[in-house]
Amino acid sequence: MKPIIYTIKGGNLEMTVTNFGARVLTLTTPDRNGVAGDVAVGYATLEDYLECKGERFFGAAAGRLANRLGGATFTLDGKEYKISVNDNGNTLHGGFIGIDNQVWTVEAHDEHSITFSLLDKEGNDGWPGNLHIWMKYSLTADDEFKVEYEATTDAPTLVNLTHHTFFNLTGDASKSILGHELEIKADKFVPITSKLIPTGELQEVAGTPFDFRTAKPIGKDIETEDEQLRNGGGYDHNWCPEGEGVRCVATLYEPVSGRKMEVLTDQCGIQFYSGNFFNGTYAGKYDQVIGHRCALALETQKWPDAIHHEGFPNTVLRPGEKYTHICIYKFSAK
Description:
Blueprint: E1 5-10, E2 13-18, E3 23-30, E4 36-38, E5 40-41, H1 46-51, E6 60-62, E7 68-69, E8 73-76, E9 79-82, E10 91-92, E11 105-109, E12 113-120, E13 131-139, E14 144-153, E15 157-158, E16 162-164, E17 166-167, E18 181-184, E19 188-190, E20 203-204, E21 216-217, H2 227-232, E22 236-239, E23 247-253, E24 259-265, E25 269-273, E26 282-283, E27 289-290, E28 297-301, E29 316-317, E30 323-333
Antiparallel strand pairs: 1-2, 2-3, 3-4, 5-17, 6-16, 7-10, 8-9, 11-12, 12-13, 13-14, 14-30, 15-29, 18-21, 18-23, 19-20, 19-22, 22-25, 23-24, 24-30, 25-28, 26-27
């Protein structure tokens, strides 16, 4: 199958996507003055994504196991599986192939939505089971970008999918995101080692730079002398919002443009990544160079490396079961 670009619209939103990795290429939304801007950070052309000379996950669906798998191995039902190593001795977002490096089938496409499917074959990156994934992107009349996942398998495997658009609500990927004001509705987060793997504990956010229960600029505490910030090179951690069902777990606001983005999900975790590894070498859209902390990701998912930590959410999917996941990015301006 050939990578193709599609357009969908809804409310004040307009998006272009491609079936290569089910990527969001552009996402335009108005500022407080009604001026539309592209808030999805990424490359200028489809060819740039295919060549992948830098950041791999711009706008992509990520999995089959989002985030990191410690040691790139796991044991399930008494059998050990070795997964491809692509991140400092670990597996990140599924491995070298992942679901982002494959061309998805477009099952349906209309003015407001597009539905993709993918068969991630058994053995890709070492994963057991043929995993069938269906994913729908919708833009609603209420200015919501809605992501819906379903997945089934024919053999026991691990599944934890996420969406990986990088955002900059200024509409200019050369500008810092440190002035964005972020609220995360969580009392706890998952601390990590220097290799970005969970320690297996949960830590209270109170009294730490990780307390976003009241909205604050991302840059307020990011340079604080803190072991967890050193380990992540900034924020690259999973927070643990309470509650069940689809609820708001985070809110992002950019005060100059007035753009606001609420993140709603039915998942138990949200990974906040503050663009720590961008270094000014990425040539983005509109002749914008993507610099250090000029893009951020808010990825709804289950907690990372869960298979290795007692008490973490279950990421095992078995035949006869169905994985589901809803994530909504709701835009407005004030």
